[in-house]
Amino acid sequence: MMFTSINPTTEACIERVAAFDSARIEQALAAARGASVLWAETPLAERTRLLVSVAERLRTQKETLATLITTEMGKLRTEALAEIDKCAWVCDYYAEHAEGMLADELIDTDAARSLVAYQPFGVWLAIMPWNFPFWQVFRCAAPALAAGNPVLLKHASNVPGCALAIERLFREAGAPDGLFQTLLIAGNQAEALVSDARIRGVSLTGSEAAGRRVAAAAGASIKPSILELGGSDAFVVLADADVEQAATVAAKARFLNGGQSCIAAKRFILVPEIADTFVAAFKAAAEALIPGDPMQPETTLPPLARSDLRDQLHAQVQASLAKGARLVSGGAPLERLGWFYAATVLDQCAPGMPAYHEELFGPVAAIIRARDETDALRLANDSDFGLGGSVWSQDRARGEAFARRMQCGCAFVNDMVKSDPRLPFGGIKHSGYGRELGLLGIRGFCNAKTLCVQ
C-alpha cells in the first residue's frame, strides 16, 4: 500500500510513501512502550525543555514547513505560516505552565494528608486530520508529552509529508527514541491498534463516523478516548448587532482555510430586522474572494484538499437547492485546474435540506432566517452537532446570556469561534467529548490519582 500526496492546486503528485508493514508497526509499538517507562520518570523540567526546543525549530523552519502545508493540502500560505506559529505557541504554553497544572492538589480531609496526583497513562494514539495538519497534532501532542506520555501519530493519508516532518522535528529536538513516532498506516489499522495493550488512550480529531468506530474500539478495551468530531457552528446575529462588523467577521469565519474547519461558522441565523442587510454585505464579501494559487499573496480562496471533498460538497449544495434553498452566490465548482469551489451563499435554508442538517466542509454558507430572538436560539440548538457557536449583540450582557444557552462546547460573543492554548476546547452531542488545551486539556492525558495518608 502507498500513500500519495497530491497538490490540490495543480493536481500533480508530490510523492508516494510506502505504508508500514506489520513488522514496522510492531517495532514502533515496542519502542513507544520502552519510551513510556523512561519518559514517565523523566523530570518535568526535562520534558518541558523538549517542548521549548521543538518550538524553536518550528519558528526557524517556519517558511519551509508552511510551504509543505500549502503544497500538500492547499492552505493559503499566510494561514500556513500562522498555523506553524500557533504550534510553537502551544509548545511554549505547556512548557511554561505544566508544572502548576500537574502539581499535586492538596485536599483537606480527615486523613493526615490527602491529595490528587496527576500521573501519565502511557502511550497515546493520536488519529489526526488533514485540514490543520500541524496544529491538530500539536494541540494533542504538546500536553500529552508534557504530562509524561509518548505519542504515536496516525495522520491523514493525504498529508504523509507533514506527518513525517513533525516526527523529524521531535527527533531533531532531542526526543528519546520511541517518544513521538509517525505510523504510516490505514484508518482501519489504527482502529485495530486501539485494542493493543500497549496503547493506553486514544485522541481522535475527525469525522463523526470515524469517531463512532474509535470510541467503540476504546470502549471495548476500556480505555480513555478524546473525540473532536464535526461541527456545524451557528453564527447568530441579533437585532442590535453591528451588522457590518458581523458580516466582515462572518466571511472570515466561514471561508478561513477554504471553509474546511470543524469550528468554522456554517449556519448563519438571522433575525428579521437585520437579515437582508447582513445577506447583502455577506454576499459582497464572498464574491470579493480571489481563487488562485495559495502560495501567492493575492489569493484569498484556496482549493479544497481533495477532489472527492469537492464532489461531496457540490452534491450537498445541489440537494439543498432542489429542496428550496435560494442561491445567492456561487454554487458550482470553478472551471480551472485544481479542486476549487466557488464561494457560495445559500439563503432560505430550512429543515430537510443538507445545508440545514449536515456539515458543509468547504466554502458554502447556509443562511437561516429566524422569526425572532427566541426562535434564533431554537434554531441554533436544532443540530446534532455542538462544537462551537457565536452570537452578535452590542449589549454584551445580552450576548453572554444568549451564549450561555447555546448547546455547544465553546461559545463566543462578538467574535468568531477559535481555539486558544489557554482555554479548553471540545464539543458535545455528535461533535464529540473530552477537552484539549488549557488546564483540562493536559489533565485529560493524566490519571488523576487520589492519595490518602494516615
From TrEMBL:
The keyword NADP applies. Its EC number is 1.2.1.16. Residues 3-450 form the Aldehyde dehydrogenase domain. GO terms for molecular function: succinate-semialdehyde dehydrogenase [NAD(P)+] activity. CDD domains: ALDH_SSADH1_GabD1. It holds the Pfam family Aldedh. Keywords: NADP, Oxidoreductase. It comes from the Bacteria. SUPFAM superfamilies: ALDH-like. It is an enzyme of class 1 (oxidoreductase). Belongs to the aldehyde dehydrogenase family. This is Succinate semialdehyde dehydrogenase [NAD(P)+] Sad. It comes from Thiorhodovibrio winogradskyi.
